[in-house]
Design brief:
The protein has about 325 residues and is of the alpha/beta class. The chain contains 13 helices and eight strands. The longest helix is centred in the middle third of the chain and has 15 residues.
């Protein structure tokens, strides 16, 4: 017990129950033009309790995977987040269960595709949670479609602007894999084989070309940058640089974890994220009561009367309209 308590304090997380096995999700196929997405939706245990206790609606997360992956390899992370949130996962075109399109989208194009999906399925506003390449997509989604986004979580964000080459990224990934467990290697290998080397290479190019630092200053909501303490792909200096570009950013680290922290053991990362979400609550503007327009200040009784006290009815209407705040 003492060892667990010390580890809990070191990770900076609150005590939570162990996540149960994930139930079968709601599965949605979304197609737009020549691209298809597979959506997987878990209402979350908190959402189930909310239906009977009438508590505040739990936050809705949109999880966006990294390159070569699909949602299935993040099962422990999803299961932990599912304890307190509604979780919506997406398999981007050509990854996981989604079919490979004719041409790869840019990172910005992928964000626009997700925005179309969110609007059509009425999923917003929500909190995008992106891992690795998915963090680039999440950043663009928040910057380009702020009305759909409440907060943002960028986990192990890429691509370090000092190492935007295939050779450098391959080296960093090999360094990270060398420190991972056989379980992580097996999961990653299966996912990469399923994606296929040709599609992986085709998608890698727009990932390296994307400049996430251009999107960060346009993200207005609270944003968490979360990295593994031992991550060579998303180093500390790069994470600090990203956080400094955010109008409302915060950097946290996962102890003793690398780039594939969400695959190796998703619980610590999910718990840090849940704590941060609890510290940064948001209110759905659609559910807030409308504020009554402020009353016009009382007229000063000592004020001298106007030279022409008689005005036309049109003038009165114009005066009333100009003195009251605009309401939508």
């Amino acid at each position: 017990m003492e060892v667990r308590e010390r580890e809990r304090r070191r990770c900076g997380t609150r005590e939570r129950p162990e996540p149960p096995e994930l139930p079968d999700p709601q599965r949605i196929r979304f197609a737009h033009r020549h691209h298809e997405l597979r959506i997987f939706r878990w209402p979350g245990t908190a959402a189930d309790e909310n239906a009977t206790t009438h508590r505040r609606t739990p936050p809705r997360l949109l999880f966006i995977h990294g390159i070569g992956m699909g949602h299935a390899v993040y099962d422990r992370f999803i299961a932990t987040a599912h304890l307190e949130c509604e979780v919506v996962c997406v398999d981007l075109p050509g990854f996981g269960d989604s079919p490979e399109p004719r041409d790869p989208l840019s990172i910005a194009g992928t964000a626009d595709l997700l925005a179309t999906c969110i609007r059509r399925l009425r999923l917003g506003p929500l909190t995008p949670v992106g891992h690795s390449m998915g963090a680039q997509v999440a950043a663009e989604l928040a910057a380009r479609h702020p009305n759909l986004v409440e907060r943002v979580v960028l986990i192990a964000p890429t691509v370090n602007r000092r190492e935007r080459t295939v050779g450098k990224q391959t080296l960093r990934m090999l360094q990270d894999f060398a420190n991972n467990s056989p379980v992580v290697l097996a999961k990653g290998l299966i996912a990469y084989i399923r994606t296929g080397p040709l599609w992986f290479v085709r998608k890698l190019r727009p990932t390296l070309e994307h400049r996430v630092e251009d999107a960060l200053p346009r993200i207005l909501g609270p944003t968490l940058v979360l990295r593994g303490e031992d991550d060579p792909v998303s180093p500390r200096d790069w994470a600090r640089e990203m956080t400094a570009l955010l109008p409302d950013g915060e950097l946290r680290e996962i102890p003793d974890r690398g780039h594939e922290a969400l695959i190796a053991s998703g619980e610590p990362a999910a718990r840090i994220m849940l704590d941060w979400l609890a510290d940064h609550p948001v209110r759905n503007p659609k559910r807030n009561p409308k504020r009554k327009p402020a009353r016009s200040p009382a007229k000063n009784p000592t004020r001298s009367p106007a030279k022409n006290p008689t005005r036309s009815p049109a003038g009165k209407a114009q005066s009333r309209e100009g003195s009251s705040p605009k309401t939508k």
